[in-house]
Design brief:
The complex is a heterodimer of chains A (about 160) and B (about 220).
Chain A lengths: L4 H20 L6 H17 L9 H17 L18 H19 L3 H12 L4 H8 L3 H19 L2
Chain B lengths: L9 H5 L5 H13 L1 H24 L14 H8 L2 H19 L27 E3 L2 E3 L6 E3 L7 E8 L2 E8 L3 E2 L3 H6 L5 E9 L5 E4 L3 E5 L2
Parallel strand pairs in B: 2-9
Antiparallel strand pairs in B: 1-3, 3-6, 4-5, 4-7, 7-8, 7-9
Helix pairs in contact in B: 2-3
Classes of the chains: A mainly alpha (about 160), B alpha+beta (about 220).
Chain lengths: ~160, ~220
Amino acid sequence: MDIDLDRLVAQFKPVVGFKVKKALGWGNPDWEDVTNEILTQAIEKVRSGEFRGDSTLGTFIYTIASRRIVDYVRRKTRPLRGAPESGALPDPREELEREQGAEQLAAAVRSLKPRFREVLRLYYYEDKSREEVARALGITPAQVSERVNYAQKLLRKRLRP
Amino acid sequence: MTKCPYQSKIDPYLLGKLGEAESAAFEDHYFNCPPCFQETFARNELVDVIRDRGAILFPAEAEPRPVRRETAWDRWKSILTPRPWAAVAAAAALILVVFVGVIPRSTPVGAGFSPIDDATVRGASVEAVSPAGVLARAPESFSWKGVAGAAEYAVTLFRGADIVWTAASADIRIAPPEQVRAGLESGTAYVWQVKAYSAQGTLLASSARTAFTIAR
């Protein structure tokens, strides 16, 4: 199978990274090593011909990722580390970047009009269902979804550099 | 552009409302659907920020009142517009002045009126000092700046609308019991508030609700 491996990495590194962080915990510093191991394994299997196209490439890589995460969670294998004294502390630069990004997003949320902030509060913070939010605001569930989606569009617009 | 049917799964997935099998199916999908992955990734940041900082972003906002359907009484009331009644009231007042010589005056403040009872003294506030913001570990104490005349302070710790812990202190600092500290969960937003009371038990001042989260 003729697969562009550079493109594979470019496409799947963020996807695998997201899945790994979600499974391991967002602050777990092992996420990057686990992600790299998954991608390395995927590339090796593609090169060796193990991937024959029976499933999609995405499903193939998802299966590798799921298994590696299960291994990690069961502590069967820990990721190889370069520095012997690397501990379980999160990378401070990554923490700072995440904190700054979160602060910008929080400021953007605060600047939204009340009707959009309210729907975000009820839906994401209060964890209400679409129907409950609709009842609370006197609108239809479809309008709840529209407002949530529109609020997100507004936020992305405000955060664009 | 046709909307992907999996888009409706993004929020439930991020909010942890999908079962294990459904979650796995959705994950397999976004490994194969770049637009769904991008939307999931972007929305995840928003959900994270709202979940972590909701107490600060939405400080003690009242639940919106549901929109009432107009009743028959509402329709009757709307027929009785303010203007005709204002004219009637003015005419009545004039009649009183002409025939009775009485000029209605505003209700005087009675001798028994006290602004303090259960109200806050205007202008006084308690400044909560710590904890606040993102913490590396559970707070070992709560501290605030003192208020003149305060004999006692009451601290309340909230998680959402639930009271996690409340206690009183004569000092401007209090340490939560160990079992309260141990029960605080990382990644969860907590809000606390302190109120100052006089020796007679009168509420003198309240602090703003101050939020903190213990980093994961």
